[in-house]
From TrEMBL:
Residues 15-169 form the DUF83 domain. Signal peptide: none annotated. This is CRISPR-associated protein Cas4. InterPro entries: Dna2/Cas4_DUF83, PDDEXK-like_dom_sf. Coiled coil: none annotated. Transmembrane segments: none annotated. Gene3D superfamilies: 3.90.320.10.
Length: 172
């Protein structure tokens, strides 16, 4: 498997890239090479169902590689997660979406991550510091994507539920 090295366009980095980077750089590298076992993963299917059936009156904002769940008046980015626990990965995705919109001239106010299964929201601040974090995270994602080889696998205990687990661990 050869990396595709097509991370030159800013819009080619989406929220999934950021989420995978923070979960497992190896997962990001494999994803960027076109390996996509997510379609066979029950957790991914469940998350898509939650997304499709929650907050249906809002329209997605399609930015190419990035698809924002919705943006409200006043430029607040909204992301829905099926997780029962907030994660730094979720906030990083929202920051990335804020960055992409800011680059398009939108005056972003911040973001909100929605957790409908636990009826909770998490506010995401957008300021100079948050933008710097988003830019640094994006740069790290580009480094992983353009690497000649994947990052080492994580300890097996951190791979529970990952759709890439069989690829990384096989029969070992």
């Amino acid at each position: 498997m050869t990396p595709h090295h097509q991370a030159d366009d800013v819009d080619e980095i989406g929220g999934v890239h950021i989420k995978y980077l923070l979960h497992c750089p190896r997962q990001l590298w494999l994803y960027s090479c076109g390996y996509r076992p997510e379609a066979r993963n029950d957790a991914v299917a469940f998350g898509e169902t939650v997304d499709d059936t929650t907050y249906r009156r809002h329209a997605d904002v399609d930015l190419g590689a990035a698809k924002i769940d919705w943006v409200t008046r006043g430029a607040v980015v909204h992301e829905t997660k099926s997780s029962r626990q907030p994660s730094p990965q979720h906030e990083a995705q929202v920051l990335h979406y804020c960055l992409l919109l800011a680059r398009r001239g939108v005056n972003i106010r911040g973001g909100i991550v929605h957790y409908p299964l636990i009826r909770r929201t998490t506010n995401v601040t957008w300021d100079v510091s948050a933008r710097r974090i988003a830019e640094d995270t994006e740069a790290r994602a580009r480094q992983v994507i353009t690497a000649d080889a994947p990052a080492p696998r994580l300890p097996r205990t951190q791979c529970r539920g990952c759709s890439y687990r069989d690829y990384c661990w096989g029969d070992s």
